[in-house]
Amino acid sequence: MTTTQQFDLVLKNGHVVDPANNIDGRFDVGIKYGKIASVINNINLDMADDTIDVEGQIVMPGHIDTHAHVSSVFGNDTNRAYGHAMLVESGKTTTALDLAGNPTLMAEGMLQRGAGLKSRFFDGFGPSLNNI
Questions:
Q1: Which CATH number belongs to the domain containing residue 49 in this structure?
Q2: What is the mean pLDDT of residues 101-128?
Q3: Are residues 18 and 49 in the same domain?
Q4: Which residues lie below 8 Å from residue 1, measured CB to CB, with a gap of 6+?
Q5: Residue 3, Cβ neighbours under 10 Å: how many?
Q6: Considering the chain, what percentage of its residues have pLDDT values greater than 70?
Q7: How many helices (DSSP H) and strands (DSSP E) are in the chain?
Q8: For residues 110 and 78, what is the distance between their CA atoms, to the nearest angstrom?
Q9: DSSP letters of 18-66?
Q10: pTM of the full predicted structure?
Q11: Is residue 74 part of a domain?
Q12: How far apart are the first and last CA of the chain?
């Protein structure tokens, strides 16, 4: 399959994994207006304003920064939790994890400042002697 559209950016030679579209292999990804416009073999470089060779890298839609720790064991600052939550809301992070902090504090910070996240809190979620 070939394409004649112009792309803002082409990611060349990446291992594309997209379970929703049953894609798992080496492809080029054409991006137009900040959205994936095409996933095909061998997009012509003349069709790209900019190109990044991602050979040897995994390319997955929605994974710009796959996780962030939004609190820590070093203090009880609702503003800090809110600030990290806003990074997630920006759409560049798909998962936010608490780093052994206080999930109640995180929830309070988000409610007070209106982070507006769709969120779930898992207490005790993660590796342990019984969950590896």
A1: 2.30.40.10
A2: 57
A3: yes
A4: 40, 41
A5: 14
A6: 43
A7: 2, 7
A8: 8
A9: EGGGTEEEEEEEEEETTEEEEEES---GGGBSSEEE-TT-EE-TT-SB-
A10: 0.50
A11: yes
A12: 44
Q: Which two tokens stand for residue 64?
A: 């710009």
Instruction: Output the CA–CA distances (angstroms, integers) from residue 75 to 1, 31, 107, in the order listed.
Output: 55, 41, 15
What is the rounded distance in angstroms from the CA atom of residue 113 to the CA atom of residue 91? 18
pLDDT at 119 over 80: no
Do residues 4 and 47 lie in contact, with contact meaning Cβ atoms separated by under 8 Å?
yes
What's the CA gap between 68 and 97, in Å, rounded?
6
Two tokens, residue 94: 């798909």
Instruction: Say whether pLDDT at 27 is over 90.
Output: yes
Range of the domain at 96: 68-113
Are the C-beta atoms of 23 and 17 separated by less than 8 Å?
yes
* Host H or E run for residue 78: helix 78-87
- Count of Cβ atoms closer than 10 Å to residue 89 Cβ: 14
Query: For residue 132, is it within any domain?
Result: no
Q: Going by C-beta distance under 8 Å and a sequence separation of 6 or more, which residues neighbour residue 51?
A: 9, 10, 11, 12, 45
